[in-house]
Target: Neurotransmitter-gated ion-channel ligand-binding domain-containing protein
Amino acid sequence: MFWVPEIFIDERADENKYTASTHLSINSTGQITFFQSYRLTSSCNLDVHAFPFDKQKCNLTLTVSVYPDENILLKSAKTSKAANQDSHIYYMSNGEWKFEELRTINRYVSYGSLNCSAVIYEITMSRRSIFYVLVVIIPMFALFLLDMAISYAFGTPGEKVAFKVTLILQVTFLSLILTDKLPATSDDPPIIAKFFTGMFVLLIFGILENAFELYLREKKPKFSSLVTCVNRFKRKEKKESEDAVTYLGKQ
Model:
């Protein structure tokens, strides 16, 4: 009969679920090896500022919080290199996260006036971003370029407004996909959320521009000079762009 101290995991988010093992090994020096498998849900503070190209570091802190370090000294049975190699073998890599590195740290933690020995496993993972690039980022760029093309295409302002409203609906659909993946409690919004907000504002300004032009055309007798100036400015921009293309073609 032997005694096993109770190991606590500071980052656990639920009750420990483990499978009791009845097997152990004892060598000639009196060293006892006892295996215990755990299944748990842990908490981790995420920094999603660089989403979806972010890397996260999560810790698992194993300690015996009721015994001082003079009585029990916890140490990892494997070095960081060996634990890292084993983790690459057993980690299931077909999910959203890609395992990068595992480090083992032997440290002392304080619980009030009690100093306890602890082993910290620092896990580094990176998010697989190819899904977000293909489904969210590239379509968003394509919609923005399409909006620019509609702005300089031939057509009435009313037709342009109708096309741009359709683009805004598509951007809203993409933002819903992104919203499901982002934590709602983040104090620092990710860069991709700011990018979506900027693109949405530009699309709104494009609609307002065409709506204002349509309003001026409806009030043409009153604002004929202003409409003429706007049309001249657009024709001038178009002519300059055509001249630049012709010059490059000659070169």
